[in-house]
Amino acid sequence: MSTIAQIKKLREKTGAGIMDCRRALEETKGDEKKAEALLAKWGIEKSEKKVGRETKAGIVDSYVHPGGKVGVLVELLCETDFVARTDDFKNLAHELCLQIASMNPKDVKALLAQEYIRDPGLTIERLVKQVIGKLGENITVARFIRFQLGEK
What we know:
The protein is α+β, with helices and mostly antiparallel strands. The chain has helices at 4-14, 18-27, 32-50, 81-84, 87-103, 108-113, 124-135; strands at 57-64, 70-78, 115-116, 119-123, 139-148. Helix 2 (18-27) packs across helix 3 (32-50).
């Protein structure tokens, strides 16, 4: 049996819905680590169902590395302006900028295949799918550009 404190803690950590947190804790017999993994799995499964949806809203985010020698612009798209204004969506855009500044992928496909700099056990594609599962909308990385001082 899961307690309210466990559900609250899991919800704060994952951003998943209350009922999903409760169900995950019940299925894992209160094991918080396993419940967190189960919620991530469910989020990925939900994201697979969103793939064909059209993405017309979104944001352009930027990052300039301290010292001003590397800068990134990324266009991240979603289905609605409502989701584009959420902190989770904005945070994903920022994390993508940091990834691009750090790892210099040649294109979107290469970016999605990269290991996430903050968690090498996670690819960028899986990170995006987790956010899709959490927000309930399709998300696509439309394009990006990375500038490095003196680079042609």
